[in-house]
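At this stage, I put together a protein sequence along with its fold in C-alpha cell form, as given directly below:
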Amino acid sequence: MPKFFIKTENLKENEEIWITGSDVNHIKNVLRKKIDDKINICNSDTQANYECIIKYIEENKIICKIINETKSMSESSLNITIFQGLPKSDKMELIIQKSTELGVKTIVPVITKRTVVKLKDKDKQNKVDRWRKIAEVAAKQSGRDIIPTIENIINIADIKFENYDKVLVLYENEEKLSIKDEIAQLKNNDKEELNIGIVIGPEGGFAESEIEQLKLNQNVSVITLGKRILRTETVALVVSGILMYELGDLN
C-alpha cells in the first residue's frame, strides 16, 4: 500500500488528514486512487503511522479519514549521520538513495581538500533540493517512517562532533584500528539510542592534514575497512549496513 508523509499541521479535527502539495497529483493522476481507497500516511514529526481511507479528492488537497493508528516499526534506535565528501557525477544521488533504504537518519555533503566538484553558490541549493527529493522518494519506497535529513553543503572544518557517541573516519592508509574493534567497543554502550557519525572522503580520499585535524576530536576514531580500497559511493553503504546489522535492528 502506498505511503505518504505529512507534518503534524496536516492532522485535522474529526480524525482527518489533509494531503497537499505534489502528493495530490501523484495520488490522483499516477496511482489513480479513488474515493474509499486506502493509503498509508506517516507523520514525519512523530513517526506515527495511519491507515486511512480517501474521503474527498479536491483540486489542491485530498482529505482522508484515519481508520487505524500504529507506532513506528521501521526506524532503528541507531542514529547514523553520514558526512560524505562530495563525489563526482551523480554518485551522491546513489549514496542518498541507498543510505535511506538502509536506515540512515542524516546525510551531510562535505567539501574537502581533494573534492573535485566545484559548485557555485547559486547551484548548491538546487543540488540539495534535488537530493532531498531523492531521499523522500526512497523513504516512501522503503517504508521508512521519517525522511532522512539532507543538510546543506559544509566544509570539513565545520563539522561538529560533540553530539555523537562515536565518529568513524574511513581512511585507506589506516592499518591498525578496524571497524570490528570499534563495534566491539560500541556494543558495551548501554544507551538506548546511539548517535554515530561516519566521515567519508571523496574519490581522492582525505589529505593527511585533514586526518590529523580530525584526530584531535576526542570521540573520533580513524579506521580501516580492510585490505581492499572501496570507492567512495560504496563506503557509506558498506559501513551503514555493518553498523545496522551489528548495532541496529537487523540483528
The mean pLDDT is 91.
